[in-house]
Structure formats: structure tokens, C-alpha cells
Amino acid sequence: KVPLTAIRRLSIYARMLAGLEADGKQQVSSRDLGETASIPSTQVRKDLAYFGQFGKRGSGYSVKELGFRLRKILGIDRAWNVALVGAGNLGRALFSYPGFSKQGFRIVAVFDNSPGKVNKSWKGTRIQSIKELSKTVREKNISIGIVAVPASGAQEVADEMCKAGIKAVLNFAPKRLKVPTGCMQANVDLAIELENFSYYLSKLR
Amino acid sequence: KVPLTAIRRLSIYARMLAGLEADGKQQVSSRDLGETASIPSTQVRKDLAYFGQFGKRGSGYSVKELGFRLRKILGIDRAWNVALVGAGNLGRALFSYPGFSKQGFRIVAVFDNSPGKVNKSWKGTRIQSIKELSKTVREKNISIGIVAVPASGAQEVADEMCKAGIKAVLNFAPKRLKVPTGCMQANVDLAIELENFSYYLSKLR
Ligand SMILES: NC(=O)c1ccc[n+]([C@@H]2O[C@H](COP(=O)([O-])OP(=O)(O)OC[C@H]3O[C@@H](n4cnc5c(N)ncnc54)[C@H](O)[C@@H]3O)[C@@H](O)[C@H]2O)c1
Ligand SMILES: NC(=O)c1ccc[n+]([C@@H]2O[C@H](COP(=O)([O-])OP(=O)(O)OC[C@H]3O[C@@H](n4cnc5c(N)ncnc54)[C@H](O)[C@@H]3O)[C@@H](O)[C@H]2O)c1
Questions:
Q1: In Å, how far from its chain's centre is CA A31?
Q2: Closest ligand, as measured to the CA of A193
Q3: Picking from A107-111, A160-164, B96-100, which range would have the lowest pLDDT averaged per residue?
């Protein structure tokens, strides 16, 4: 069973490789692959070993081939349809974030429960009433949901998503959610990034 | 040297402990402490061992005392002043996110370079011109900066921040930044969360 920390590093390697390929580089060592993110070459090799035999001893990895294979492993060699619930400030920022579609994640539907927002359009995408979630998830083959509503509404939105057939929920609301079996969840809490800083900064004092 | 992954887990334990304390619970086992985030008790004990002797064999940890000590280690037993640059959608969502101030991180200044935004106010905080960054960082004793501008402006903003005396930069722009020694940086890329999902979802097919 591959640890989640290894899968996250695979995403970092895949981005690195995409950049190298764009620069026309053909070969890369395990040390260079981990360099930008300060990941030791031993860790890089250990992570790749979970998934097979890559590269040749002494000559490193083929940038093109390794990138291709990692994208396949990560499932980013294809597109995924995503539903966003919560058309507020965070929702708007996520909707326009080019980083998602760059990796194949297309926000194909946006939902809200405020009459002031339903039926408005963001770059051609009509904001729909949350009542239309179920129907739209089926019609648009949506497998991933993003929860960008206040804490008070987050659990109900996650329940609706999983019931509608969404398989994975990314939650931004400051609330622990419970999801049924068959539905994955991940929580984002950006304060943790700042706590990493305060850990180091308070040691400097 | 404590690995960053261990420090992130410390943040998770600290949140868990704050919740338990609010519920009036007095003792907690290493297993319960790691439970919600699926962290094995062996990992919990290993993480805590970096920082000292906590708890008693057989009776677990004191919720109050361990919470107090972890907050001290993480530096969240005090407040930190934060500058936000980029008063757009993401900036607005970060500014109003209660999760930051809850952990002691106060966004005390917001900057932008668009005349349409400078001098507008967000809940009593006047959006200032980026030209005032240096002066404000000194006046308001700001040690952390958040970069929420488009990729094209991110490096310049990070340079300004470090030059002004900010010690740690949290970057949301999709661009690798270079910061001088004495300035820390971390990058947030929410697409990585979705790639974790697509890794598991594509295995299900
Ligand atoms: N995880 C983080 O680090 C982080 C950072 C910023 C914001 N947040 C969180 O993200 C959430 C959104 O923040 P924001 O600043 O965009 O808030 P916002 O108030 O601007 O937007 C919330 C939107 O959700 C809609 N909504 C509320 N309940 C709903 C429901 N039950 N169904 C459908 N739509 C509903 C509202 O009408 C509104 O449009 C909040 O929970 C906030 O705490 C988290
Ligand atoms: N990391 C992630 O997962 C993630 C998610 C969403 C958005 N983003 C990124 O966050 C950034 C902001 O996104 P947004 O949707 O809020 O964009 P936005 O266009 O709504 O806001 C950007 C703001 O920055 C200001 N600005 C631009 N250049 C500046 C400069 N040099 N100095 C000061 N201010 C400047 C603009 O005037 C504007 O107000 C973008 O880089 C976007 O790609 C990242």
C-alpha cells in the first residue's frame, strides 16, 4: 500500500518532469528530480520503486517516458469533471485557478443556494441551484466535488455530493466532515502552512 | 532535525487537543490522538519523542498540558502579524478566513497595485498600495507574507517582502519563487489535492 506522502511527491516529480520536457531536456537524475523540493535522491528512488522499474542505472530517467508513466499512475493523463459548491470568494478563486485545468481537472458545474448568485454566470458557466446537483452530477459525469461553503453548510453539502454519486470531496470549510464508505474526502486547512512557519520562526527567537 | 511532515502532524494533534479540551476531556491516548487523521499511534509517539517526554506509560497524555506544550512548540501560543499582497478573489477569501486568526495569525495589512482597489476597505482594513509595504512591515512588525497575485507578479512581490524584512512567504501563485537566505518560503498548489484523488479514482476503474 503506497503511503499518501509518496503519492504527493509523485505529483511534484510529475510537475518537475513536465517543466523539463518543456525545456527540451531528455534525461534527469533522481537527485535533480528531487532537487527543487529538497527531496533526497534516495527518497525519489524509493517512491518510484513502488510503481515499477524506471530508468537505467547510471543514466537516470527518460524525462518523456517517466513523465508519461507518472501522469498515468496519478490519473492525470485524462480529464476529470469537478463540481464546485459555494460561489463565494474562495469558490471564485478556485473556479478561475488555471492550475486545475492544467492538470486535467475541469470545474464543469458551480452551485450555490443564494438567490442572489443562482443563474449568474462565471465565464459562461451558469451558477446553478444546489437542488440541481444530483441531476447535473449524472449528466456531466462528475466524480469530484469541492466544498467552498461556510462550516454550517459543509456537512449537508458533502452528504448531497456523495448521495449524488460523487466519489471524492475536497473540503475547505473549517469543519471535520463524515462521508459514507465509497466516498473519499480530504480537508484543506491553509492555517497549517502558517503554523509550519511559526514553528521555525519561534525557534529563531 | 525534525522533518516537516512531523511538524505538520503536530498541527493536527494540536487541533485535536484543542477540540478535546473544549469537550472537557482530560486524558487522551496516542491512538485516539492520531485517529481522526488515520495516523498510527506509533507515529504519534515517534513525533512527540522529537520534542521531549510527554505523558505517562499506560495513562496517555494530559489533554491540557500536551495541547499547551504543542502550541508552544508550534509557536501558536502567541500572535503573528501577516501581510497579504493581492486583493483579488483569493486574497478576499484568505482575508475573511476565520481559521487564520483562530491560530493567532492576523492579517494586519493588505496590499494591491491596482488603483481600483487601493484605498478600498475590507472590514476596516484599508487596502494599501504595494509601495507602502516596506514601511508597513516595519511599523506593524510583520513577519509573514502571503502572495495572492498572478504568476507574472509573484517573484517581484516576494522580493519586496523579503527586502522589507518579512521572514516567511506563503505563495499561491503557480510559479516557483526564489527567495534570499533568511527568508523562508512555502508554495500551495491545491491541484495536488485533486491529483491524490485521481490517483485513487483511476485505480478503481
Ligand atoms: N481551508 C482554508 O484554508 C480556507 C481558506 C479560505 C476560506 N475557507 C473556507 O471556505 C469557505 C468559503 O469561504 P468564502 O470566503 O468563499 O465564503 P463566502 O461567504 O464568500 O462564500 C460562501 C458561499 O457559499 C454559499 N453557500 C452557503 N451555504 C451553502 C449551501 N448549503 N449550499 C450551497 N451554497 C451555500 C453562499 O451563498 C456563498 O456564496 C468558508 O468555510 C471558509 O471558512 C477555507
Ligand atoms: N495555489 C492554488 O491552489 C491557487 C488557487 C486559486 C488561485 N491561485 C492563484 O492565486 C493568485 C490570485 O488568484 P485570484 O483568483 O485572486 O486572482 P485575481 O486576479 O482575482 O487577484 C489578483 C490581485 O492581485 C493584484 N496584483 C497583481 N499584480 C500585483 C502586484 N505586482 N502587486 C500587488 N498586487 C498585484 C491584482 O490587482 C488583483 O487584485 C493567482 O496567481 C492564482 O493562480 C492559486
A1: 25
A2: 1
A3: B96-100
Which chain B positions have a beta carbon within 8 Å of A12's beta carbon? 192
- Note whether B33 and B61 are within 8 A (CB): yes
Tell me the average pLDDT of chain A. 95
Interface of B with A in 2-21 (CB under 8 A): 4-5, 7-8, 10-12, 14
Domain B80-191 class in CATH: alpha beta
Give the mutation candidate from B43, B78, B89, B183 for the A interface (greatest A CB count, under 10 A).
B89
Give the residue-averaged pLDDT of A165-184.
94
- 10 Å CB burial of residue A107 (0-12, 13-18, 19+) is buried
Q: Could you report the per-residue pLDDT of A77-108, keeping only the tens digit for each?
A: 999 999 999 999 999 999 999 999 999 999 99
- For residues B38 and A168, the model is more confident at A168
Q: State how beta strands B27-28 and A27-28 pair.
A: unpaired
User: What is the rounded distance in angstroms from the CA atom of residue B63 to the CA atom of residue B55?
Assistant: 10
Ligand 2 pocket mutation, candidates B120, B149, B171, B189, criterion most atoms within 8 A of CB? B149
Domain boundaries, chain A: 4-74, 80-191
Q: What percent of chain A has pLDDT over 70?
A: 100
The CATH number that domain B4-74 falls under is 1.10.10.10
Asked if B36 is an interface residue toward chain A (Cβ–Cβ < 8 A), one would say yes
pLDDT, tens digit, 9 for 90 and up, residues A139-151:
999 999 999 999 9
Atom of ligand 2 nearest to the CA of B187: 1
pLDDT at position A205, please? 65
User: Which ranges constitute the DSSP H helices of A75-150?
Assistant: 89-96, 98-102, 133-139
Cell of B115: 488603483
What b/e sequence results for B14-45 when a residue is b if at least 16 CB atoms lie within 10 Å of its CB, and e otherwise? bbbbbebbeeeeeebebebbbeebebeeebbe
B121 touches chain A (CB under 8 A): no
pLDDT at A58: 79
Q: Do domains A4-74 and A80-191 have the same CATH topology?
A: no
- CB pair distance less than 8 Å for B104 and A193: no
